[in-house]
Amino acid sequence: MKRRDLSFHLRGAALQEHQLKAEQITYPPLDVPNPVTASVWIVDSGPTKAMGVIPLPIRMTIIRLQDGSLMLHSPTRYDGTIRRSLEEFGAINHIIAPNSAHWMFVKQWQEHCPSVETWGAPGLSKRWPVKRAGVRLDMS
After folding, report:
1. What is the DSSP code string of 72-99?
2. 8 Å CB contact between 68 and 89
């Protein structure tokens, strides 16, 4: 084995030894609305992999608006149990994709909540991965 190949192989083995478990990357309990205030909740989920390699936790913030409806900011992966839990607090009427990294699960929520209004960061609708995924942005 060439020196460079050996070096790469050893780094890969070292990375595998130091890979963290999901519980070490995320903030349990996962996929459960946790109250922050009377009208704000967070849902921790994940991890997902940035660039297919780096494990990252995901956090959605839910805000109850003055009309009683809910706004999902940076949604986590869709799960029917999470949706039912949230609908106990109000109807899900708005989704916000705040930047180019926090839109990945918007389409899943749109498919299960088709009347939801979706807001996106300026220029997000022009990004190829967003177009390819079929994410609908009503406002950006």
Report:
1. EES-----HHHHHHHHTT--EEEEEE-S
2. no
CA distance 20 to 18: 6
Q: Which pair of tokens denotes residue 100?
A: 């180019």
**Measuring CA to CA, how many Å separate 74 from each of 4, 18, 30, 80, 121?**
41, 29, 15, 17, 11
Q: Which residues does residue 50 pair with via DSSP β-bridges, in sequence order? A: 54
Mean pLDDT of 6-32: 61
pLDDT in tens, 31-77: 999 999 999 999 998 777 766 777 778 899 999 999 999 999 999 99
- Does pTM surpass 0.70? yes
Distance from C-alpha of 39 to C-alpha of 63, rounded to nearest angstrom: 6
Please say whether the dihedral angle defined by the alpha carbons of residues 8, 12, 15 and 17, taken in this order, is positive or negative.
negative
- Pick the residue with more confidence: 78 or 2? 78
